[in-house]
Amino acid sequence: MNKVKRKLSNYRRMKTISYLIGFPLLIVMVFVCSISFIGQSAFEDTWWYGVAAVAALWVVVTLLQIVFSLFAKGWKARTMFTLIVAVGLVLASAIVFDAYMGKEFEKLEKENQEYGVTIENYEYQINWFSTMTTGKKSMTKKFNDSVFDFLKTYHIDYKADNYGDENTDLSEIVYNQEDDAWYSPNGMFADGYIFGIKQALNVLITYHEQQDYFKAQGKDADEELQKALTALENNASSEWNKYKQTAEYKKAYGENGEAYKYMLTLDRLDAILGALGRELEDSVGGLGPILSWVGLEEYAALLSYINEDLDVDTIVTVINTMGLFEEPITRDTLAELLKGFSFYQSPQAKPIFEFIEDENLKEYAYVNYYATVHGAKIGSVLIGPKIGHVDMNNSGFPEDMGYTLEELYQLRTEISYKPQFYPLFAARRYLYVFAGVIGLSTVLAYHFARKEKELFATLTMEGN
Amino acid sequence: MKKFLQILLHLAGFPLLIALVVLESLHIIESGLSYGVMVFVGVIVTVVMAIIYYLVFGIMAKRKKKSIYRQTIVSILVAFICLGGLWIAADVFLPDFLDDATSGTIFYEDLADDFNSRADVNKELLEEYINRNVDNGNLKTLSRQQYLDEGARNQEVMDLLKKHFESIDMDGYATFVGPWIDMADDERLTIPTLIHLIINQRETQDKPFPSRGEDGVMVNDPVLWSILDMLGEPMEFDLGPDGMGVIPPQYLGTLNLMQSFINELLASVTNAIEDEAVVGSPIYIMLNNGTVLTLTPSNESRGVLKYMSMAWLDSNDLIFAITAFMAVRRLFLIFAGVLVVTTFAIGLLRDDSKEEKKKAVKDRPLSDTELSVLDRDNLKVEYFRPYDPSQIVITQSLNKLDFNKMNTQLLYDSQYKVTKQYSDEEFIK
Q1: pLDDT in tens, B103-128
Q2: Does B174 touch chain A (CB under 8 A)?
Q3: Residue A291, Cβ density class (10 Å: 0-12 exposed, 13-18 middle, ≥19 buried)
Q4: For residue B242, what are the domain limits?
Q5: ipTM here
Q6: CA of B30 vs chain A CAs: smallest distance (Å)
Q7: Nearest Cβ partner of B265 from A162, A284, A376?
Q8: Whose CA is closest to A198, among A150, A159, A154?
Q9: B284 has which bridge partners?
Q10: Which of A68, A249, B302, B420 could cross-link B390 (Cys pair, CB 3.0–4.6 Å)?
């Protein structure tokens, strides 16, 4: 009896082991190969593609096996069917994948030919994406390193982020998954939008492309932009000046416009100067005689302005009286200066760039704004004398650490396919290896199941 | 001996766990005793789990409806769910919950194994708050030491704290709309961000802010809060050649000479900043070492901590409760394993004892009367297995029966997981 029991146990054990060395082991192997993707920002959403692909194959094979077993009762037919389906599907998947990917890579090469990007062919990458030779750096590792360097340089994350649930003026923001960007009602990036790699690359590439475009024409993009903006402001019949008469614009920048709540206006400056004059009056009062004594009567006279009546007009008068500038300044001159210091682009009104007619220049105006002004706001400067993390505590990286157009093209191309393809490469690597193993596993599993059944039947017949 | 071993194994389970949890929680209990029951949450949870375990164990043993094997499996499951299962679920759901509940200021990872540091922070926050308010005269009914000793039990302290937090929250943090305050909190305090935080118009709710006026009388006038109050730390800018390079080297000597006069001017600027037309909250500006400009917020003079600390302090009882709960995590996970082993071992010992009893019954000569009342359990061949075994109902005299045949049949059934009830007539010699 014990002998029979041992035999039965052995058959069961062998049946289980046979089954496990098939698809379950394949999944484990693909998972192990996918470990280099786990925890890497570029593969955050895709690292499991390979594992899912082989798991899906297993499910398909199992479903077909179940369906077939409803019609065929003989073990030979079942074994044969499962064998053909399992091995056939595994091999066909690998062969079709190779054919499809070969075409995809050819397409990629064609699409990126004009950018001078290097794309190793499929046959090369399918083996180098994860190396088996000790000490050799894989393409996955190199790609992860280059993504990391880019993100560090510009102080961004792979995926975009947005601070706050709405804009400063409480206007609604909308997330666009395809662009990986949050937008304001005027179509510009939201106030708290932090670039992800996709938009950072887009902005930088467009910026450099447009700079090159104007350079090729013997022009300077920044000068052209300045000229266009001045023309829009000065031409009374420009579209921009017409837009300024609309309700949409007036709501933001008309009298008592919403946007003024978030910028320093002359009225607020008047109030600040008044408070400052009032508090400083006593402290600087004693300075007058000293200044007069050292022969600076002119400056001593200025101290008399420091009182609670100090305001923008007083400052304008004093500056003009002293003749500090060739042209006398006005309240408007100071207003312009303040605008440069704390201008708030309303998320509900169109910016002046929208009215630039030259499409190239318009595009340049937007990306220039995002790369410099928006970048400086969020502490991720894309273009400037200092780039990256520039804030009160960090001074960023020097300009020459910025990426060249060629490097940007290369990275853009790589992020367009590697995060999706490489995890599938892990599945493909083991599909060929496991075609035979899965065949063997199927045959053995059925064999031991049959042996177990036979022994059981014998025992039942003998009445034991 | 077996009974003694069972007792030992029981002691190595929940009683030992409770003792260790108390030891592990001692620091938290000492740090936050003034918050009362909240610091005992870890111990309470452990005791509750122990009660559940022993209730299940005791009820099953008393009712005897299930075999010892089944009782053991159920007890193992209960022990694992109460200890390991609880924390496996907590590891999945608690991190994001904690992140949300604390607005991203306390994370699961901070507490999982470093709960004592959190207890220190919680304790120091309250002490610092009391010290600041004793220093500025807001708290003067008792001595500093008495306030510190009473901690959260002192109603005067807790009332003051509640109103202070409402003010810095509703008239401070909540008034900063848009993305800017989050960016400042997240190492993106850029100059444009700072300008927005200072210049943006803010809607306040004018919550009363208790403070002692210059005449020594408590007043409840609302106050405004600046971004520096939210951050709570002084800011320093080195304007000299070693820092921002704003001041040319040739002026350094003159600046050093004029430092006290400049600081007098800056004191007036501070007063101007306090004006509602400017910032509305004092920022104390001082020039140190000739070139270092220091901007100190009003927190210390007003007796409050930075916003994040005030928010923690306002919910310190809950934070202590969470900290005390987190303190049991590692021990629960360890004891989930320990209890599986001890409960299984207890099951084996109980089963063994039962077998011995059965054997004693079987080995002694039985009278016909005894046989007639012999219940089927006494001859049940019970294998340790997860299904009901087959049984043979004994009605005949034992010496008429073929025990080898009976044993073979039950062994076969157990092998093929068959459950049947046999009459003993099939097994007569």
Answers
A1: 778 888 888 888 888 899 889 999 99
A2: no
A3: middle
A4: 234-296
A5: 0.76
A6: 38
A7: A284
A8: A159
A9: B296
A10: B420
DSSP percent split of chain A into helix, strand, coil, nearest 5: 70, 5, 25
Residues of A in contact with B416 (CB under 8 A): 456
pLDDT digits 0-9 by tens, B166-183: 999 999 999 998 999 889
Q: How is chain A split into domains, by residue range?
A: 2-139+421-461, 174-401
List, for residues B5-37, the tens digit of each pLDDT value. 999 999 999 999 999 999 999 999 999 999 999
Q: Give yes or no for a contact between A197 and A147, defined as CB atoms under 8 angstroms apart.
A: yes
Residue B302 placed within a domain: no
Could you identify the residue written with the tokens 């305001």? Answer: A311
Q: Do A168 and B201 touch (CB under 8 A)?
A: no
Split at pLDDT 50, 70, 90, the class of B372 is very low
Pairing outcome for strands B391-393 and B421-423: parallel
Residue ranges of E strands in B79-224: 211-212, 218-219
Nearest CA in chain A to B260: A283
Residue of B nearest to A167 (CA): B178
- Scanning B225-377, the segments in alpha helix (DSSP H) are 227-231, 252-257, 259-274, 299-302, 307-314, 316-326, 329-363, 368-373
* Residue B400 neighbours by CB distance under 10 Å: 11
pLDDT at B8: 92
Cβ contact A304:A320 at 8 Å = no
Q: Within A286-373, where are the H helices?
A: 287-293, 297-302, 312-322, 331-342, 359-368
Q: Using CB atoms, which residue from B190, B199, B412 is nearest to A263?
A: B199
The angle, 0 to 180 degrees and rounded to 10, between the axes of the packed helices A331-342 and B191-199 is 120
Q: What is the pLDDT of residue B383?
A: 39
Q: What pLDDT, in 10s, does the model give residues B407-417?
A: 778 777 777 77
The reply to whether residue B268 touches residue A282, judged by beta carbons under 8 angstroms, is yes
Residue B180 with chain A: CB contacts under 8 Å:
163-164, 168, 192
Residue contact B235–A392, C-beta within 8 A: yes
Partner-chain residue, chosen from B199, B201, B275, that has the shortest CB–CB distance to A342: B199
How far is it, in rounded angstroms, from Cα B199 to Cα B35?
40
The reported pLDDT for the residue numbered A152 is 96
| A379/B187 Cβ within 8 A | yes
**Is B272 inside any structural domain?**
yes
pLDDT at B374 (0 to 100) = 41
Q: Which residue of B has its CA nearest to A275?
A: B272
Instruction: Tell me which residue in B178, B265, B416 faces A280 most closely, judged by beta carbons.
Output: B265
HEC assignment per residue over B1-56: CHHHHHHHHHHCCHHHHHHHHHHHHHHHHHHHHHHHHHHHHHHHHHHHHHHHHHHH
Question: Residue B143 domain-assigned?
Answer: no
**Residue B199 contacts A, CB cutoff 8 Å:** yes
pLDDT at B380: 43
How many structural domains are present in chain B? 2
**Is residue B414 domain-resident?**
yes
Q: For the ranges A107-111, A342-346, B237-241, which has the lowest average pLDDT?
A: B237-241
Query: What six digits make up the tokens of B399?
Result: 């010496």
